């Protein structure tokens, strides 16, 4: 089952952080479980709309109240949030210090294109492009890619293709090779039936650190020769995909492997459509003390949580126990398994 994070924004300004190294999800919410207390919350918040979809159920419980987030002295999501002595650190919570990694972090704006397609994107400069690319942020997939029309359109001779005999090609979805010297091809299909295929290339990413400096690590991305996506077919200003998944080909994993940052990232979705959110990479980002750790499921390839699903005043779980829910910032729809969908319809009918 997939959770579309776009459903979370209407409830409150929200932030989630994912620590890949320790397999934890951190939410700005004083909840002790994801869905166990929904019945009590509905009684306390009688004015809240009766949930009719799983997305609403999940959103109400995960991010219903964020008192400590709303009391920040710096209210602008655009400004840097500096560390203070009372904020928890990753080392304090997980025991993972990653001392060899940089103590700085990247903090970038998250823009919203909710009026047309309904997505979130960041701007990142790749290669020698004169301007940054608008990349759709996607925690549900690993590969970052750009259409060939936009990626080095006038500099084809200098494209650095990844070869089939390079280790990075092993991490590519559906990579096929006839000879070791062939370019590494990829093919990926998304939950909404969108797809992309092309070849893997190496290029530099310009990342601006919070201390004012910048780094330009070389990362593997896709140069798409074919894509089928409503986000990239004239309906949106998004120009490509930023894969933030758990796989080794994701930007987060590559940055961690190169020793640039701890394997941690997060992003904030603004409540106000006219405001900005932000995304950060690295462990030195400051966050409130009330942030709660929620273990992620370790036996799946996505960012997933185990949760029970209850409805209304009923204490009994609709499926009789915990279920796996995938957090997907790139989705515009929420998907349920057939059995859960039918049981939920029966309850609200």
From TrEMBL:
<feature type="domain" description="Peptidase A1">
    <location>
        <begin position="120"/>
        <end position="349"/>
    </location>
</feature>
<dbReference type="InterPro" id="IPR001461">
    <property type="entry name" value="Aspartic_peptidase_A1"/>
</dbReference>
<protein>
    <submittedName>
        <fullName>Aspartic proteinase Asp1</fullName>
    </submittedName>
</protein>
<dbReference type="Pfam" id="PF14543">
    <property type="entry name" value="TAXi_N"/>
</dbReference>
<comment type="similarity">
    <text>Belongs to the peptidase A1 family.</text>
</comment>
<dbReference type="GO" id="GO:0004190">
    <property type="term" value="F:aspartic-type endopeptidase activity"/>
</dbReference>
<dbReference type="InterPro" id="IPR033121">
    <property type="entry name" value="PEPTIDASE_A1"/>
</dbReference>
<dbReference type="InterPro" id="IPR032861">
    <property type="entry name" value="TAXi_N"/>
</dbReference>
<dbReference type="InterPro" id="IPR021109">
    <property type="entry name" value="Peptidase_aspartic_dom_sf"/>
</dbReference>
<dbReference type="GO" id="GO:0006508">
    <property type="term" value="P:proteolysis"/>
</dbReference>
